[in-house]
Amino acid sequence: MLSDADAALAIGTDFDAIAIRAWLVDIPETLVHVILDDDLGTGYEPAVGIVADELVLLEAPTDQGEPQTSDWMSE
């Protein structure tokens, strides 16, 4: 199923042999890889690489306050 995807988002994995079943996983050509340390690009070269704290990155969108939907909800 993963090999049929147009892209993959990998958050917090360093693509070690256990995580990717000894390199038998077909990763899509477009890979976005987010990891805290400098293991970025180990095993698979990402199209987009982000070195960041995964938890902070995932929590950031939730800190935006209440959605402003009144305008489009009234239509």
What is the distance, rounded to the nearest whole angstrom, between the alpha carbons of the first and last residues? 39 Å
Structural class: alpha/beta
The main pleated sheet reads as: 3 strands, parallel
Number of strands: 3
H/E order of the elements? Answer: EEEHH
Shape: elongated
Bin the strand percentage. 15-25%
Give the helix tally. Answer: 2
Radius of gyration: 17 Å
Helix content: 10-25%
Question: Segments where pLDDT lies below 50 for 5+ residues?
Answer: none
Summed up, the domain count is 1
Strand order of the largest sheet: 1-2-3
Notable traits:
75 residues, three-stranded parallel sheet, DHS-like_NAD/FAD-binding_dom, Thiamine pyrophosphate central domain-containing protein, 20% strand, 13% helix, alpha/beta, elongated, 3 strands
How would you explain this protein's 3D organization?
With 75 residues, the chain is α/β, with parallel strands linked by helices. It has one domain (2-57). The chain is built from two helices and three strands; from the N terminus they run βββαα. A three-stranded parallel sheet has the order 1-2-3, with no helix packed on it.
Summarize the structure.
This protein has 75 residues and is of the alpha/beta class. It has two helices and three strands; from the N terminus they run E-E-E-H-H. The protein has one domain.
